Amino acid sequence: MIGPPAPPANMHSTARLPNLLLLCGLVWLAGCAGTQNKAPVEERQPTRQAAKPLPAPVASTPPLAAPADAVKVLPGAENAGKPGYYTVKPGDTMIRIGLEQGQNWRDIVRWNSIENPNLIEVGQVLRVVPPQADATALASQAVAPAKVESKPLDAKPAAAASTAAPAPAAVVAPAAAPANDDEPAWAWPSAGSVLAGFEEGKQKGLAIAGKAGDPVLAAADGRVVYAGSGLRGYGNLVIVKHNNTYLTAYAHNQTLLVKEDQAVRRGQKIAEMGSSDAERVQLHFEIRRQGKPVDPAKLLPAR
Fold first, then answer.
1. Structural domain contains residue 18
2. Which of 23, 48, 110, 291 could form a disulfide with 102 if both were Cys (CB 3.0 to 4.6 A apart)?
């Protein structure tokens, strides 16, 4: 009996080929299914932004005004700029103020009811004329020219006076000032030669030569208003007040022979010459009219 013909030798391998292809396809699909299709990731550093300033706080209500007494009002401020008053500047002391205003510094302390004269403040306003004085009149008097008295070189006998030519008519002057405002009878405070003369704004008086210990004399009658070394640049200093208009200052002494409030006479020895707060032995001598330095050589007698 003859059966069906046998398949070709490679028929089984050919028949298995579709199965292999199917199996490969399934494996590939399984691989694709197991692998996630991720998008590429780019790592970026976070960008730093500049810190922005915080907004200023906004007050919900307007700020309260400072109380009126919070602003310090210096004594005498209401008198600033008025005649007879002085506004304290940096570096001032009561002694310097007294010298520059032509007053006894103790009087200024009393007029202003100052408890501690070492505690004055810049900007403080001080009365520098007596409370009963007319400050406006004194201010105008301070700028008036000094009285100049012409003296004859050689006085004539009284008998010959009747033959002299009549004097020119006198100029009518305002009412005379009180007797204590008269021009003092001046005398030289030292016998030494003048080293340096008065110079407006630079040299406030005369520098007079001498030796240590030479006598320093009061230039006119008066009362000592200061004796000490508390004024920088003057050394051991004596200040004499002669009347309501004039005072004199004697500086750089080695020894002081008078005390404050002591009365002195013209020619009285009040100190000994020295070099305190100076480069050499000398007497620095000032004449002040209403506190303003004037040239002593124009007031002292010729010699």
1. no
2. 291
